[in-house]
């Protein structure tokens, strides 16, 4: 749930709604800080060693995971709690997607056990990957629905974990917007895969189950038409752009959505939709493969241009010319040029450029030492010749 939605509610909602929004903002800020801390310092994930292993905990509406009760393990029967069932199934479907489509062994690709905490807080209107586990709120039932209902939201949040263990894209500015976009892309693909949908059949909406009927909106975000997902007096209008000319320059603070990470993600989101729709078929086979490989080649500070050119290079390496041209057209349509004036940067050329930079730095250092030595020789020569005054 983007922070600006909760801030609109904080300004315009009823006293109860404002209280809910304030608590959610404070909690989300703390959880995101935990995620950045975990991502920066690293986290030793619990390893199952036996394929898919899920554990579901019940927070019992407390705003903490401490003292949460284990209610289901992989081999257990359901306890009948709908949120626990939805979390168990959604996490399982996401695991299966990454395993079967990308041959990935859980989120960290090393057999990480998948822990989920349901019934977090009282009326908490959000879901979160905190760097170690999934956390789900129930919503208030008036504006926000139960978050475990949305498979693409579950896929989105778990993909933050995939990103954490691959490129670890820094959560600010364009790298942060890419972080959010990658989660939207693969969250949508998880849903499409589970429904056996083609790109043409998919709705390309993220989080259609998150709003109640009282909200004028279809979803949290639209990849097909960024900026059209919702428009409601209480929560505001979807601010996402779909083109670089409308890129939002915002401060890299929590108040500025860390540089608009949930806002500007609409641009690469739309590029993916255009590419997948153009080539047709199921989106996880070609478009998804390109994006997944591009994520593996990305670094923490990768920006839109670099990511786009990386996808272009991958399309050329692994697919035919028409696929690469379709990708080029998709990026062009959102205002990002690839394969033209910009240098195409693949994983191999990136490494080569890095080595070249290191060689240049070594040469400069060597030249500096030579100049220093020459200066000393000149001074010594001046002194010996009696030219020093």
From TrEMBL:
Alphabetized GO MF terms: hydrolase activity
Coiled-coil residue windows: 357-384
Signal sequence range: none
Annotated Peptidase M4 C-terminal domain residues: 167-336
Keyword Transmembrane helix listed: no
UniProt EC number: 3.4.24.-
UniProt key word Secreted: yes
Compartment(s): Secreted
Domain Peptidase M4: 74-164
Keywords of this entry: Coiled coil, Hydrolase, Metal-binding, Metalloprotease, Protease, Secreted, Zinc
Cofactor(s) of this protein: Zn(2+)
InterPro entries in alphabetical order: Metalloprotease_M4, Peptidase_M4, Peptidase_M4/M1_CTD_sf, Peptidase_M4_C_domain, Peptidase_M4_domain
Its biological purpose: Extracellular zinc metalloprotease.
Family classification: Belongs to the peptidase M4 family.
Protein name: Neutral metalloproteinase
